[in-house]
Design a protein that fits this description.
The chain has 477 residues and is an alpha+beta fold. It is built from 11 helices and 4 strands; from the N terminus they run ααααββαααααββαα. The protein has a single domain, classed as Up-down Bundle (Outer membrane efflux proteins (OEP)).
Length: 477
């Protein structure tokens, strides 16, 4: 079917409907239909009951499940002052303003005009005259083929996409605050463990020194003991650096200078305890909760509507235009009896464009396919995020239990080896090995406890928790 035949056939069809088609919503281009992705019926790494209603309630303000007032305060302050979130809110306002601009094209426009001209003509007997003009011009493009309505439809979808983008920023923000807070508390506990082990090692080094002075051991034991102390001492500044950087991260997330929270957060506190149960709901519910999925769906809607905008360029554009003007030589002489007016319809039909219109239609179709593929990828990524968090949390619980046993055993080994060495029944190397093993297992246990909390945070984030905890009145202004 050639281009000319398609134009003529569609034109005759729409013109036969006339104004009725305009009012009843005759629009070219495909209509939007929500995508229907395939999701599994259950999570592979399910760690608790589905608890759909319970999960919905918990996800709204999931950070309160850690029962840490400091964490709750930081999250609330970040929501109030984070600059990325403020930018996202401005993007929502921008999208809504853009919708207003696009929507104005559906209605008539009118312009009031006024001018003054002073003229002089002739030679020796020149005549000077004044001309005052005022009038009104009006125009209306009749949206017979729905191009303007499709533009409005796309703009509305863009508004929804910007709202979901703001929600996604909120989800990321609260999880980042919580992650940095948990990491900070973990670093602080690592520092405590390092200093406790350093104290024990210093005591052992003092025992070795005294035994060396008494001639019971060689200088090698002294050197090994001093090396152990120096090694542990060298690790503390590294951990302190990480702890301070975590505070800086939290401060910036709250929209403040990096050092503004040093005094508040430098005091040592324990790692927030993970909630006893984390209801996850069903995989199908993630399509409704995750803002990035909802944003991707809105982008499909927008790109689908833009195909209709491109197709509308195949058809003629009909306009109604009119004007009225009044002229006089003085402002006081402006009277309706001296008016001039005009009114009439017009049509503009682009007959030949060297394939530009058809190429633009193909461009919009390709863009729509991209948004559909992006939606599918976003859904797969969301499912992967949840499964990753579930398996990480499940396996970390097993590791944590083993590390608790290891710490208990290593503490006993240190006590026994120290006692035997003091009595001269074993070499100092046994004490060193026991102390190293204890420090390693205690440090690993702290990291594991921190990982349990960060895995739960990652799970809440993957489930899309947190965006509906805040009133959106601020972006409706």
């Amino acid at each position: 079917m050639n281009e000319g035949y398609y134009r003529v056939k569609s034109l005759l069809l729409c013109l036969s409907c006339g104004w009725l088609l305009l009012q009843s919503g005759c629009m070219v281009g495909p209509n939007y239909h929500p995508p229907e992705p395939n999701v599994p019926p259950e999570w592979v790494g399910q760690i608790g009951p589905h608890g759909a209603k319970q999960a919905e309630k918990i996800l709204i303000q999931w950070w309160t499940e850690f029962n840490d007032p400091n964490l709750t305060s930081l999250v609330e302050r970040a929501i109030e002052s984070n600059l990325d979130l403020r930018q996202a809110e401005e993007r929502v306002r921008q999208a809504r303003a853009t919708l207003g601009v696009v929507s104005s094209g559906f209605w008539p426009s009118a312009d009031a005009t006024s001018s003054y001209t002073r003229n002089r003509s002739g030679g020796a007997a020149a005549i000077t005259s004044n001309l005052f003009t005022t009038g009104l011009d009006a125009a209306w493009e009749l949206d017979f083929f729905g191009g303007t309505r499709r533009s409005i439809e796309a703009a509305k979808a863009d508004v929804q996409a910007s709202i979901e983008d703001r929600r996604d920023v909120l989800v990321i923000l609260v999880s980042e605050v919580a992650l940095n807070y948990v990491q900070l508390r973990g670093y602080q506990q690592e520092i405590i463990i390092a200093r406790n082990n350093l104290s024990t090692q210093q005591q052992s080094a003092e025992v070795v020194r005294k035994r060396f002075e008494g001639g019971f051991v060689s200088a090698l034991d002294v050197a090994n003991a001093n090396a152990q102390v120096a090694t542990t001492l060298s690790q503390i500044p590294v951990i302190e650096t990480s702890a301070q950087q975590a505070i800086y991260n939290i401060s910036v997330l709250l929209g403040q200078e990096p050092a503004s929270l040093l005094e508040e957060l430098s005091s040592v506190s324990s790692i927030p305890v993970t909630p006893p149960e984390v209801p996850t709901g069903l995989p199908s519910e993630i399509l409704r909760r995750r803002p990035d999925i909802r944003r991707a769906e809105a982008q499909i809607h927008s790109s689908t509507a833009l195909i209709g905008v491109a197709v509308a360029d195949l058809f003629p554009k009909f306009n109604l235009a009119g004007s009225i003007s009044i002229r006089a030589d003085r402002p006081g002489n402006l009277q309706l009896s001296q008016r001039a007016w005009s009114f009439g319809p017009s049509a503009d039909w682009q007959i030949f464009s060297a394939g530009r219109v058809w190429s633009n239609i193909e461009v919009q179709k390709a863009l729509q396919q991209q948004t559909m593929l992006n939606y599918r990828q976003t859904v797969l990524t969301a499912l992967q995020d949840v499964e990753n968090a579930l398996v990480a949390y499940d396996k970390e619980q097993l590791r944590n239990k083993s590390l608790i046993d290891a710490v208990t055993a290593n503490r006993k080994a240190v006590a026994i080896s120290t006692e035997l060495y003091t009595e001269g029944q074993t070499e100092f190397l046994s004490v060193l090995d026991a102390q190293r093993s204890l420090y390693s297992s205690e440090d690993a246990l702290v990291q594991s406890t921190r990982n349990l909390s960060t895995d739960v945070i990652a799970l809440y984030k993957a489930l899309g928790g947190g965006w509906d905890s805040v009133s959106e009145d601020v972006i409706r202004k």
